[in-house]
Structures are given as C-alpha cells and as structure tokens.
Amino acid sequence: MKKSFVSSLSTSLSLIAFLFLSACTLTAELTKSSVDPNNSKIVVPPPAQAIADGETKLQVHVYALDNLGQPVKNFTPDLFVFGRGEHQTKCEPTGVEYASCTLTATEGGQKLIFTKNAMILRPGIAYFGDDLQVSSMIVRQDNVPANGTARALIEFQLKDDNAEKKVGVQPQLFVKSPKVKINCSVSGVDGLSQCRLTSTEAGTYDVYSYNPAVLPVKVTFTEPFLKVIEERAYADGSSKVKIEVKTSTVPVLKSQPSDTTMACGTVTAGKSLCQLTSLNVGAKIISVDSPSSISEVVEVYFASNYNAITANGGSSPRADGYTEYEFEITLKDAIGSPMIGVLPLVEVLGAGINSVHCEKSNNLGKAQCFISSTEPGLKRVIGKEPLIKDILPIEFVASPVV
Q1: CB of 96 within 8 A of CB of 117?
Q2: Cβ(8)–Cβ(16) under 8 Å?
Q3: Letter string b/e over residues 253-291, b meaning 16 or more CB atoms within 10 A of that residue's CB
Q4: How much is the mean pLDDT over the chain?
Q5: Cα–Cα dist 324/312, whole Å
Q6: Which of 2-11, 64-73, 162-171 has the lowest mean pLDDT?
Q7: What is the pLDDT of residue 256?
Q8: How many CB atoms lie within 10 A of CB 23?
Q9: Rounded CA gap, 282 and 120, in Å?
C-alpha cells in the first residue's frame, strides 16, 4: 500500500521509540527477541481519554506478538509515557490477546505510550484533560428526528491550561455508532466551536471528545416523520430516491430546488412511500407541503452516472490507526470526459478515528484515496465532491489478525 502522512507519522513515532529504547537497558533478551516490533502494538481503547487528576485510570492494551502474530505468553509490559506531568502505570501479564495495563497522569495533553522491555514500533496515543472546568461540552439542541438531516447541537468551549480561550481549534468528537455523523467548526475568537450531529437511527448516544479530553455528554435522536429509505440515485429521470412518510393521508412533498418529480403512494399502516426522480445533479432539500403539521426536512442526492467509487481489492484492513486501505474515485464531467488534476472530497461514516486522504485525479480522471481507522467494523465512504451515487463499504477488522 502507498505511503502517506499517516505512514510518515508512524515512521516518526517509530524513530522516537527506537531512539528511546536504544538508551534503555532491556531487562530480558529473550523477551526482546520474541516480541516482533512490527506485529506488536499498543492500543488505548475508546474513548482514549481521562481526567488528569493522578487518580483516574485509563485502560491500555499491549498486543505483544511474535513473528507469527501470536501473543507472547507471560509477557508483562513495562510502560514509558511521553508527555507532560507524572505518570503511573501498572500492567498484568499477557492474556488471551493482550496485556492489560492502566495509566494515570497529573497533567493534561496528548500522551505517547511505549514499552521499555520490548521494541514495539506502534505506540499508544491517549489524551488527558487537566480540569473538567477548563474545556467543556454543552448540549444546546437535543431530541431531534433521526432522519439523517436534522441536527443536534453541541457547543464546545475550548480553553488552555490557564483557562485562556483557544482560537482556531477543531474538537475531535466520537460516537460508538456508524449511524451518527459529526461535524465540528473551528473555534472562533470566543473559543467556542459548534458541533452538529445527525443520525439515521433513533436512540440516546454518548458523545466523547478525544481532543481535548472532557467528560462525555448524551444526545438523543427521536423517531422521525420523514425517513429516507434510498438516499441517492442517478440524475437520469428514472433512478429513484425513496422517502417514507409517517402520516394518515397521502402526503404532498416539496423540493428545493424545484427540479424533482415526486409521487407518494397510498397510506399503509400509517406510512406512505414517496419516490423521487430528477434530471439534475445535486442535493435536494425535501419538505412536506401537506399535511402541514409535519415540519421536518430531509436531504437527498442525485448524482451523475459517470462518477464512481471502487475498492482496489486486498484483504480487510486492520483497525490499528496506521494500516491503510486503498480505493479509487473516477471523476468525469457532464459529457463523460475525464476530469484531470481534481482533488475529490469524501466523507467517512463509522466508529473510531477515521483518517482519509486522496490524491488529485490523473489523465484518466482517476484519483487514489487511502483510509485508516482505529476501530473495527464497517466504514461507509461517501463521495461528496463529485457527488457519487454508490457508497463504498470497507470492513476494518480487529488487530491482531491471526
């Protein structure tokens, strides 16, 4: 797989680990030789954050594996932590898959976690918050419909260790559900960031912040009156977007822009299925004209059938935050000619910290993209610019894979 800035980060951290471990006295030569540096890793499971009070413990998993990818038995890690303040660690011997450790810190910030008694090139990354009252999350808008468009609102107050407002910072939030999408703004001069969340599934969700580390908040999404069944279609006049409306009478829909043909079926079990077509590429905002009691809106998309997103093959990638999976986006204009030198914009839905970057399209209109994730499970890659009908599913697997 192609190297990237994620790979460069891994290389830099590996160099730090090598320089540090070269200066240490390794306590067991047998352990040193049996723990494979490349197969092994240190993982801080979500939410990967704790309060920096010297007492609150953060879980750390050390996957000490041999060259066959098997756990090294009876290995007890001795951790070293790079970061501000004092750190206390305690580890148990390797279990079925990993050795379980705990970590406390007296000062906030990002922590890089290494082992002193074995060469492990992939460190753990954790965040500690100095004080619950320094940075904080407040839910400003809650109990919104789970229709994929209605937005819950979290206001994030960002401050540094001296309680001074932090400007130009974008919080990193996380929800353990692929149904929830989060978009945070960069903090302004007042140190405030607006984080907006949408969901396609009703329920109450814990919202975590990786950076800066603060206590989680809860956001609730309710059952919607408008439910998008098929969100995307080709702009060919026949491919259909489908919306289900909870109503007692046949609804009449309205589109903005008004270039969409809409037809709703009879009401069955309190629901009507509406089908939409369009000849024009773009996003459409759909509302209900009748009955007027329904005030919800949803967003749907019509895409050109010339653009595509495809996987480049290969086995399922490991969810270790470093291993990248390659996929390809085909970019063409309205008459099917390749778009050259264009940087596509994609969005990833799925649990964990998902990093994705793309190259500009080549002479054939094809752009190579790369994705990594910290959490196993299904990720859905969506083509935003250009708008692409199909969504690419990528299944990340838990590491280690044996």
Answers
A1: no
A2: no
A3: bebeeeebebebeebeeeebbbbbbbeebeebebebeee
A4: 85
A5: 12
A6: 2-11
A7: 96
A8: 7
A9: 48
- Pick the closest to residue 241 from 332, 327, 333, 148 (CA basis): 148
Indicate the length of the chain as a whole number.
402
Quote the distance between the C-alpha of residue 257 and its chain's center: 31
Contact criterion met (CB below 8 Å) for 84 and 61: no
Task: Pick 235 or 173 by higher pLDDT.
Answer: 235
What gap in Å lies between CA 383 and CA 297, rounded to an integer? 22
Residue 109 or 272, more confident = 272
The Cα 296–Cα 287 span in angstroms is 6
**Range of weakest confidence among 109-118, 123-132, 229-238:** 123-132
How far apart CA 212 and CA 169 sit, in angstroms, is 10
C-alpha–C-alpha distance, residues 52 and 214, integer Å: 10
Find the angle CA(21)-CA(375)-CA(179) to the nearest 5 degrees.
Answer: 160
- What is the tens place of the pLDDT at every residue in 78-101? 999 988 889 999 999 998 889 999
Using the structure block, give the residue that is written with the tokens 């969901």.
199
Peptide bond into 317 cis (omega under 30): no
Across the strands, what pairs with 349?
A: 380
How many contiguous H segments (helices) and E segments (strands) does the chain have? 2, 31
Measured between alpha carbons, how far is 309 from 388 in angstroms, rounded to an integer? 7
The more confidently predicted of residues 331 and 170 is 331
* Confidence at 374, pLDDT banded by 50, 70, 90: confident
Please state, in angstroms and as integers, the Cα–Cα distance from residue 312 to each residue in 249, 317, 371, following that order.
Answer: 47, 12, 12
Q: How far apart are CA 198 and CA 224, in angstroms?
A: 12
Q: How far is the CA of 275 from the CAs of 229, 266, 303, 306, in angstroms?
A: 10, 12, 16, 23
pLDDT classification of 400: cutoffs 50, 70, 90: low
Number of other residues whose CB lies within 10 A of the CB of residue 209:
26
Asked if 13 contacts 91 with a C-beta cutoff of 8 angstroms, the reply is no
- For residue 330, the model assigns a pLDDT of 95
